[in-house]
Amino acid sequence: MLSKTEILEALRGRLIVSVQAYPGEPMRDPNTMGQIAASAVAGGAAAVRVQGLGDIQASRSAVEVPVIGLWKDGKDGVVITPTFQHAYAVALAGSHIVALDGTRRERPDGLSLAETIGRLHEQTNALVMADCGSLDDARAAVEAGADIIGTTLAGYTDERPKTDGPDLDLISEIRDAALPAMLVAEGRIHSPAQAAAARDAGAEAVVVGTAITHPTTITSWFAEAVEG
């Protein structure tokens, strides 16, 4: 079992790859996700971020790096690991880190973010990554006990505009706030140059998903360029 310090050090200064497929897509299968996770690790990923209990279990069997697990449930509002029961199940499925909605919005089960994180830390060994949308979210999530702050929801709540590419200004703001949690950039990072820019802005690690693991979207980029 990796310690908290070992997990965080494994991520520091490294690339995390998000391995996800949407319902109904050809790759929407846990075994396929596990194989893609293993391929990402072979290419240099220090960790993988995986959605769904079956995918988490398959990825734990396929890789030896830390697995960041989440469970999307719902279509609007708080959908990323929205309740404590979701978070607990994600931890039990084998996640080293549980990613959850880290905004200040009301959670479906009525628990506060602090209550959710506190229970998770008490009942499991998992770390918590809070997916935030603003500096105020990040501050509140750290106060609630989050181990990692992600910029995942920047531009997806009402607090900040959706940027073309990663929200570098938000990354810089959180860096300058010197919060006692690891800062991870995530969201709309579609090129190596953007990943490097996120690191330069202050991110301690970078998550890339679509540009590496979602061939439908990647193909559409090239098709539009060729046909456009």
From TrEMBL:
Pathway involvement of the protein, from the record: Amino-sugar metabolism; N-acetylneuraminate degradation; D-fructose 6-phosphate from N-acetylneuraminate: step 3/5
Keyword entries, A-Z: Carbohydrate metabolism, Isomerase
Keyword Isomerase found: yes
EC number: 5.1.3.9
Superkingdom: Bacteria
Catalytic function, reaction form: an N-acyl-D-glucosamine 6-phosphate = an N-acyl-D-mannosamine 6-phosphate
Matches recorded under NCBIfam families: PRK01130.1
Entry similarity comment: Belongs to the NanE family.
Function per UniProt: Converts N-acetylmannosamine-6-phosphate (ManNAc-6-P) to N-acetylglucosamine-6-phosphate (GlcNAc-6-P).
Name of the featured protein: Putative N-acetylmannosamine-6-phosphate 2-epimerase
Gene name of this polypeptide: nanE
